Amino acid sequence: MSVSRARLPRAFFDRSSTVVARELLGRVLVHDAPDGPRAGRIVEVEAYRGARDPASHAYRGRTPRNAAMFGPPGHLYVYFTYGMHHCVNLVCGPGGTPAAVLIRALEPLRGLEAMADARRVRAPERLARGPGCVTQALGLDRRHDGLDLVNGPVWVSRDEAVRGGFRIARGPRIGIRVGLDRDWRYWLAGHPCVSGPRGPRGASRAPRAPAHGLEGGVPR
User: Fold this and answer.
1) Which of 52, 120, 131, 163 is the most interior residue, by most CB within 10 Å?
2) Structural domain spans, the chain
3) What's 203's DSSP letter?
4) Does domain 10-219 have CATH number 3.30.420.40?
């Protein structure tokens, strides 16, 4: 599959994280890794809003770990959690007002062999299902924290979002104990690569369609 090398501009990220989160769905996240590009279509995200959001890492202020969230928009915030997983976030909003979008799941599009080797699984729908799987599949870790999405090796294609007939759903974020009243998780309802519950609080889903680019079970 061909992906435009044109990147989303910084202005795209210089907005509310809840707006950016929805507009990221269907767009392609790329890592120009040393062994070749790895890319996936974003199918599930969560928004976090700093001082307004008790579930955000930035809620209690700036630390060495979360410093990237306080910088200009359009950078990566990568953190290590549970002693075993990295998670990747895209920093949003004006510099100094920390907000970010967590990438929870991708539909793999390029670099599938490298992803499969890194993940030690072969099923395409499992390669980047869950935030820890996303970073493992793309080859991202704390070394990539703070990288610029506009000029660095990790970026979001400027191509139009492709959602393949899946409707955007929203609901509570996953794996948090506070801020549960805020429906800031967004996903393509019914998509096979989504990591968490695929329907919003009992709402009906859009008809299930094949994952974009699937041919013989392997995305092109």
Assistant:
1) 131
2) 10-219
3) P
4) no
pTM flag (> 0.85): yes
Query: Strand ranges (DSSP E) for 5-75?
Result: 28-33, 36-48
CA torsion sign for 167, 183, 13, 44 is: negative
Residue 146 to residues 91, 114, 181: CA-CA distances in angstroms? 9, 24, 30
Quick check: 79 and 142 in contact, CB under 8 A? Answer: yes
Q: Cα separation of 46 and 165, whole Å?
A: 21
pLDDT digits (tens, 9 = 90+) for 49-104: 888 888 888 877 889 989 999 999 999 999 998 778 999 999 999 888 899 999 99
CA dist., res. 166 & res. 200, Å (int): 13
Show the tokens assigned to 55.
């579930």
Mean pLDDT of the chain: 88
Joined together, the tokens standing for residue 152 give 């660095």
Task: Determine contact, residues 170/185, Cβ cutoff 8 Å.
Answer: yes
Query: What is the rounded distance in angstroms from the CA atom of residue 100 to the CA atom of residue 202?
Result: 27
Do the Cβ atoms of 200 and 173 come closer than 8 Å? Answer: no
């990591």: which residue's tokens?
195
